[in-house]
Amino acid sequence: MEILRTEELKKYYNQTSVTVKAIDGVDISVSRGEFVAVVGTSGSGKSTLLHMLGGLDRPTEGKVYIDGKDIFSLKDEELTIFRRRKIGFVFQAYNLVPVLNVYENIVLPIQLDGNEIEEDYVNEIIDILGLTEKKNSMPNQLSGGQQQRVAIARALATKPAIILADEPTGNLDSKTSLDVMGLLKTTSNKLNQTMILITHNEEIAQMADRIIRIEDGVLYEKC
């Protein structure tokens, strides 16, 4: 079943007399439970693409459908609520709240939405990500890899339709990066969680189910 689709997605910027085509007519379809890597060099448009897939930036033209909803048909406040409920984000920066412990950071988005915490599901995520013994630890007591695991757990906890990960291993060493990617792959498989990973690292991308390359704002399927 299709969980994400874009139609002729474009993002243009006017700079003096030049139009920069950051994203130029992107059509993409992602199935539920699929783990897709979008690979591109700096300036290729991959982060711009992720921001539009996540509703963080509106396109110049085109549409993004998530779970059957045209997200840019929503008003700003409606889009904010949709994003909180349907899209999980994992960034290079962990963005943990320093005064909250691991468990509190993970369930924070659920509480902000006024929903009841599904303890069994949250504990399953914590167990899969190897954080059980760290539930009461504060962020400053964790390694970089552990903090990124908490960020992944937080993104998973709301049961989003899709998780968007923007260079999630960018601040980690090679071994820890592969460990974190292995955990992303594991959670995608075990929880049937759809993930789109943005990366410049070919080795990291190989762990995905499907690889797409982006160059000058245009997507190319990579065999």
Task: Supply the key terms.
Rossmann fold; alpha/beta; 4-stranded antiparallel β-sheet; single chain; 223 residues; 7 helices
Low-confidence stretches: none
Instruction: Give average pLDDT, whole number.
Output: 92
CATH superfamily: P-loop containing nucleotide triphosphate hydrolases
- What is the gyration radius calculated from CA atoms? 17 Å
| Strand count | 10
Instruction: Write down the overall geometry.
Output: globular
The SSE string, one letter per element, is: EEEHEEHEHHHEHEHEE
Under the CATH scheme, which class? Alpha Beta
Provide the number of structural domains: 1
User: What is the end-to-end distance?
Assistant: 22 Å
Strand order of the largest sheet: 6-7-8-3-9-10
Name the helicity range.
Answer: 25-40%
For this structure, the CATH topology is: Rossmann fold
**How many helices in DSSP terms?**
7
Biggest β-sheet description: 6 strands, mixed
